[in-house]
């Protein structure tokens, strides 16, 4: 039983096979935190440009609306649509691009920079309710529950600690202008979001470490699997080919050694040869040797040297060669044809004994 315990580290080939199947350590929380961090950085950098673009668009829209005749015309509606599209592109475009880039980089980094398209293929096992329930209630449940609690508690605590210092200065904002109030509120909200995102990033890193630990544990191999892999991949192709040739030669030699003990050799007469033996210990005659062309010629030669009868029956020879392997008994549908051949051989053998 010790050999069945997964105590050995995964070999490079085992890791490669797992990667090709899409089995990698990946954390959705880490990817999400990276996307959120990239979005906040993009907002921090482009905030002045976003505010200016939004204000310019607002002024332009108000200007168009102030002229009802033009605003309701096709040209006016087209201009409003163009201004809105440009504003969305200028304000949302940089943030969306940063988030997309962060998602791609974060995902590629977690899978080693070599994503596999095979994982995109539909797999109905992923939506199997039984498998989903097993994963939900499996050994990973305690960690996932603690992680969810930790996310809410940590992000909430960070946000609270960021807001509390500013609560004492609320009286100071009484009477300030709308622009200053908006700027102050925006800076405060951005600061809270940045701190919460950093806390979320820390949780994502911890989650990725846990996922990597579990992945490495799942990849471990038994000692028998390591030995089997070494046998399979530790021999060069040339050596494997030589071993196969040697095995074929030994099998052919054993087959030829059984020809002298055969009762009959059914031939094509030149292309195929099948040697049959029936000693009563099996349910039907057994094929002890078979071959075509050069091997068939060698079988016929050995049979002639050892006085084994040769019977020319092309249809039967082809059927035996294609339907039966060496060491197997003939199929039931060939019983009658083989019985006629053996009966003929036994009659000829009896006449020769009488004549002698």
SSE blueprint and pairings:
Blueprint: H1 12-20, H2 28-65, H3 68-71, H4 74-110, H5 129-136, H6 141-167, H7 178-219, H8 223-233, H9 237-258, E1 264-267, E2 272-277, E3 286-292, H10 294-305, E4 310-312, H11 314-323, H12 335-355
Parallel strand pairs: 1-4
Antiparallel strand pairs: 1-2, 2-3
Q: Whole-number average pLDDT?
A: 78
Tell me the total number of β-strands. Answer: 4
Order of helices and strands: HHHHHHHHHEEEHEHH
User: How far is it from the N-terminal to the C-terminal residue, by CA?
Assistant: 67 Å
Number of domain modules: 2
Share in β-strands: 5-15%
Q: Largest sheet, if any?
A: 4 strands, mixed
Low-confidence runs of at least 5 consecutive residues: none
General shape: elongated
Can you offer a commentary on this structure?
With 356 residues, the protein is mainly alpha-helical. It has 2 domains: 2-228, no CATH class; 239-355, 3-Layer(aba) Sandwich (name from scop), CATH 3.40.1690. Helix content is 68%, strand content 6%. The chain is built from 12 helices and 4 strands, in the order αααααααααβββαβαα. It has helices at 12-20, 28-65, 68-71, 74-110, 129-136, 141-167, 178-219, 223-233, 237-258, 294-305, 314-323, 335-355, and strands at 264-267, 272-277, 286-292, 310-312. It has a 4-stranded mixed beta sheet, with helices on both faces. Helix 2 (28-65) runs antiparallel to helix 4 (74-110), helix 2 runs antiparallel to helix 7 (178-219) and helix 6 (141-167) runs antiparallel to helix 7 (178-219). The longest helix is centred in the middle third of the chain and has 42 residues, at 178-219. It starts with 11 loop residues before the first helix and ends with a helix. The mean pLDDT is 78.
């Amino acid at each position: 039983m010790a050999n069945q315990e997964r105590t050995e580290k995964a070999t490079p080939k085992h890791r490669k096979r797992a990667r090709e199947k899409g089995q990698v350590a990946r954390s959705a929380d880490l990817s999400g935190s990276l996307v959120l961090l990239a979005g906040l950085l993009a907002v921090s950098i482009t905030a002045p440009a976003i505010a200016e673009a939004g204000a310019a668009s607002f002024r332009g829209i108000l200007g168009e609306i102030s002229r009802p005749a033009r605003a309701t015309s096709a040209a006016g509606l087209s201009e409003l649509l163009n201004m809105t599209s440009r504003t969305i592109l200028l304000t949302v475009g940089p943030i969306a691009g940063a988030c997309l880039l962060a998602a791609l980089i974060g995902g590629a980094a977690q899978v080693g920079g070599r994503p596999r398209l095979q994982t995109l293929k539909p797999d109905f096992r992923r939506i199997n309710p039984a498998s989903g329930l097993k994963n939900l209630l499996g050994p990973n449940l305690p960690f996932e529950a603690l992680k969810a609690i930790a996310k809410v508690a940590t992000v909430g605590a960070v946000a609270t600690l960021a807001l509390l210092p500013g609560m004492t200065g609320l009286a100071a904002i009484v009477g300030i202008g709308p622009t200053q109030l908006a700027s102050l509120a925006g800076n405060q909200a951005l600061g809270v979001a940045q701190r919460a995102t950093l806390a979320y990033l820390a949780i994502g890193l911890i989650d990725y470490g846990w996922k990597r630990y579990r992945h490495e544990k799942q990849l471990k191999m038994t000692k028998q699997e390591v030995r089997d892999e070494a046998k399979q991949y530790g021999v060069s192709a040339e050596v494997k080919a030589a071993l196969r040739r040697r095995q074929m030669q030994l099998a052919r030699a054993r087959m030829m050694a059984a020809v002298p003990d055969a009762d009959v050799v059914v031939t094509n007469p030149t292309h195929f040869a099948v040697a049959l033996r029936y000693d009563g210990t099996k349910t039907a005659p057994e094929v002890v040797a078979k071959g075509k062309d050069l091997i068939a010629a060698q079988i016929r030669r050995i049979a002639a040297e050892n006085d084994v009868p040769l019977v020319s029956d092309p249809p039967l020879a082809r059927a035996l060669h294609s339907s039966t392997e060496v060491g197997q008994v003939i199929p039931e549908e060939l019983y009658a044809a083989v019985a006629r051949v053996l009966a003929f051989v036994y009659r000829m053998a009896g006449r020769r004994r009488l004549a002698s």
